[in-house]
Amino acid sequence: MKFTTSFCIRKFSKVIKMKKIIFLLLISVLFTAGLKAQVMIFHGQGRGPLKKIEELERVKLIEALNMDEQTTLKFFARRNEYRHKQIGLFQKSNELLGDLDKEVNKEKTDGGEIKKLIQEYLNIEDKISDNRDNFVKSLNNILSPEQIGKYLVFERKFRDEIRDVIFRERRRGKW
Predict the structure, then answer these.
(1) How far is it, in rounded angstroms, from Cα 6 to Cα 72?
(2) CB burial of residue 127 (10 Å; 0-12, 13-18, 19+)
(3) Count of CB atoms within 10 A of residue 165's CB?
(4) Helices 5-42 and 69-104, packing angle to 10 deg
(5) How much is the pTM?
(6) Are the C-beta atoms of 86 and 128 separated by less than 8 Å?
(7) How many CB atoms lie within 10 A of CB 48?
(8) What Å distances lie between residue 72 and 33, 79, 128, 140, 143, CA to CA?
(9) Which of 1, 22, 135, 148 could be stapled to 82 by a disulfide with Cβ–Cβ 3.0 to 4.6 Å?
C-alpha cells in the first residue's frame, strides 16, 4: 500500500482534530464538573470523567512543582485530606443554602430561623477559608516556599484556562 503525502497530511490532520476535540471535551467536562462538582461528588456521580481530569491535573502539577517521588506522595496525601474536608464543608454549605432557600420562599417566613441559617452558612464559609489557609500553611514542611507559590499560581491558572476555553467555545456556539 502506497501512502501519498496528501493522504498522510489528511490522516495527520484528522488525528490533530481528534486530539483537539478530546481536549475540548475534557475541558468542558471539567468546567461542568466545576459547576456541579459538589453535587456530583456528594452523590457519587460522575467520578469517571472527574478522575481523568484530576489525573491530568496531577501530572501537570508534578511537572510544575518538579517534585520527587517521596514529596509527591506526601503532597498528594495532604492535598487529598484537604479536599476531603473541603467537600464535606461544601456539602454542608449547600445544604444550608437549600434550607435557606426553602425558608425564604415560605409564605410565612421566620426571621429568627433565617438569621440562624445565615449565621450557620457564614460560619461554614469561614471554615472553608480557614481549611484552605491551614492546608497552604501545612505545605511548609513538604514543599519549599517557591514550590508553594508555584502551586498556588498553577491552581489559579489551571482553573482560569479551563474556564476561558469553555467560555470561548460557548461563544462560538459549539458547546
Answers:
(1) 45
(2) middle
(3) 18
(4) 60
(5) 0.64
(6) yes
(7) 9
(8) 25, 10, 24, 14, 10
(9) 135
Task: Return the ∠ at Cα 46 (arms to 159 and 67), rounded to 5°.
Answer: 45
For the segment(s) 68-142, the CATH number from 3.30.1490, 3.30.1300, 1.20.120, 1.10.10 is: 1.20.120
DSSP character string of 13-32? HHHHHHHHHHHHHHHHHHHH
Pick out the chain residues at pLDDT < 70: 1-50, 52-53, 165-166, 174-175
The predicted-structure confidence for 136-170, as pLDDT tens digits, reads as follows 999 999 999 999 999 999 999 988 877 786 688 77
Stretch(es) of the chain classified as CATH 1.20.120: 68-142
CB within 8 A of 93, min separation 6: which ones?
121, 124, 125, 128
The CA distance from 158 to 141, in Å, is: 24
What pLDDT, on the 0 to 100 scale, is given for residue 35? Answer: 47
